[in-house]
Amino acid sequence: MNLKNILRDTLTFKFDKSFGLDISDRSVEIIELEKFFRFSVVTYGRVELPEGVIEDGKILDQNILAEKIKKLLKDAKPKVSTNKVILSLPESQVFVHCFTVDSKLKSGALSSIITEKASLALPINIDKTYWDFIEKPLADKTQKLIMFIGVPKDVANSYVKFCNSIGLEVVSLCVESLSLARTILKSSPKQSLIMDIGSKATNISFFDSNDKISMSVTIPVAGESMTEAVNNGLKLEKAEAEALKIKLGFKNDKENTVRPIILPVMEEILKETKEAIEYYERTFNQKLDDVYIIGGGAMLPAITDIIKDYLKRDVQIATSSYNINNYKHLVGKDNNFPVFANVVGLGMLGASGEFKDLNLLKKMPSSEVNSVNRLNLFNMGYLSKVNTVRTVLNNKFAMAVVIILIGVIFAVIYKQIQIYYPVVPAYKPVPFVPIKLRPVIQTGTSTLPVLGTSTKVK
To answer: Which helix (H) or strand (E) holds 132?
Structure first.
C-alpha cells in the first residue's frame, strides 16, 4: 500500500457509516464493514424469503418483508451501528441500454438525444423512470458510447418508503453490476467481464482498465429458466427440480439426467454473451482479459467447464474479495461468496463513503426520500440504545437541536445559581495612606500626646 492511500484512508476515516442491504426475490442479505487501510467485517446476516413476498423485483407483501428484515437485524451479532443503508436496486427492474452518439453533443442537446433513443428501447414511458447515464469514449473519436440506466419510479419509491417505514434511511440506490465490480475487481490494467447468473436474468457487464463500467447487457434467461426446464422435462415439483439442478448441475456423467435438459438453456445465455464480447472488443478496440462468473448460477457444478468450452476463454468463479481481511468466516465452508458478493460491494461503499458511482437516489424528488422518524428508532429493537442515540446525533438537524437544548439548560442552571447564591462583590483593597506621627510626652506610667505646641506638665 502506497503513502497516498495510507494518507487518504487516515484522513477520510468515517465514524458515521452505512451498512449494505441487498433485497432480492428469494433472500435478504445485510453486511456492515469498517475500513482502516483494508475492509473488515463488523456484522452480517442472511434470511430467505418465501414465495409471494417479492416477485420480479416488486414488493408484494411489506408486512412479511418487514418482519424478516427486523428479525435479521435484531439477531445480528453484533448489531448494526447505524440506520443508514446502501440499497441495491432489483436487477430485474433496472433498464440498461447502450448506444452511440456524436461525441460533440453536450448538455441539453445530449440529454434530448438520450431521451429520444432510450424511449425507443424502454418497455415503459421514460417519464415514469428515474434515469441517468454514463459516457465512454470510443476508438472512433467522432462517436461516444452512452450507457443509459433507468428504474421505474414506482419501484424505486416503494423500496425507499419501505426502508423508511422500518426506520432505515437510504443514502444511495446502487446498481448491482457496479457493486459487484467493487467487490471483485482489482486495480489492474485489464479489461474485465462480470457474468452475473441470477434467478430471473443474466447480466454481463464490461469494465475497463480503471474498473469503470463500459457496457452492460441483460439477458432474460437465468437460473429459473433452467429450473423450469427440469420441471417440465422430468415432471417434478418445482422444489424438487431446483434441488436436483443444484445437486447435479453440468456434471458430465451418464447418470446426470439434468445436464442435457439445462445445457440448451445455458447455451442460449452463452450465445448472447459471446455476441456481446465480440461487439465490445470491436467497438472499444480492446481485448477482453478476465471473465468472472457470480450469482447463484455460478455455484452449479461444472458450470465453468461449459462456459470455457463455449467462449474459448479462461473463466474464474469470483470466490473472494481481494481487500477484505476476514471474509472467510463470511462465506463458510461451502464458499457462499457468490451469494454475498453484491451486498459486500454495498458494504464497502458504506464504509468508505466514496460515493462516486451512479446513484439514482439523487434523481428522486425530496418528497419521496427519507421521511424517517428517528425517535421511533428506540422502539425498533435492532439498534442498541447507544447506537440509536449515535444515529440520531449523526443527523445535522438533530445535532443542532441538541446543541441548542444544551445551551438553554446551561442558561437556566446559571440563572438559578445567581438567584440562590448571589454573587458577592469582589474585595477591593483600600489604598494605603501613610499616617503622620505626633511627638509624645512620657510622665510616670502614662504617655500623653502633645495637644498643642507648648503644653507643660507640672
So the answer is: strand 129-137
Residues 6+ apart with CB under 8 A from 144: 100, 101, 102, 103, 135, 136, 137, 138
User: Which 3 state secondary structure label does DSSP give 320?
Assistant: coil
Phi-psi region of 158 (alpha: psi -120 to 50; beta: other; left: phi over 0): alpha
pLDDT value at 368 more than 80: no
Domains in the chain: boundaries: 187-319
pTM above 0.70, yes or no: yes
pLDDT of 451 higher than 70:
no
Compute the C-alpha angle 105/108/113, nearest 5°: 60
Contact 316, 292 (CB under 8 A): yes
DSSP for 277-317, written as a single string? HHHHHHHHT----EEEEESGGGGSTTHHHHHHHHHTS--EE
Percentage of residues of the chain with pLDDT beyond 70: 79
Q: How does 386-413 read in b/e, with b if 16+ C-beta sit within 10 Å?
A: ebbbbbbebbeeeeeeeeeeeeeeeeee
**Residue whose C-alpha is closest to residue 130's, from 373, 363, 381:** 363
Pairing mode of beta strands 27-36, 38-48: antiparallel
Closest CA to 223 of 200, 250, 194: 200
Residues 39-52: tens digit of each pLDDT? 888 888 999 999 89
As a whole number, mean pLDDT of residues 106-129 equals 92
* pLDDT (mean) for 428-432: 67
User: Residue 199 half-sphere exposure, CB side, CA atoms within 13 Å?
Assistant: 11
The better pLDDT of the pair 200, 59 is held by 59
* Of the options 2.40.160.20, 3.40.640.10, 3.30.420.40, 1.10.12.10, the CATH number for the domain spanning 187-319: 3.30.420.40
Burial class (CB in 10 A: 0-12, 13-18, 19+), 436: exposed
Written as one string, the DSSP assignment of 34-81 is EEESEEEEEEEEEEE--TTSEETTEE--HHHHHHHHHHHHHH-SSPPS
- Rounded to whole angstroms, how far apart are CA atoms 226 and 249? 10
pLDDT at position 280: 92
On whether the CB atoms of residues 86 and 19 are closer than 8 A, the answer is yes
Three-class DSSP category at 103: coil
Average pLDDT, the chain: 83
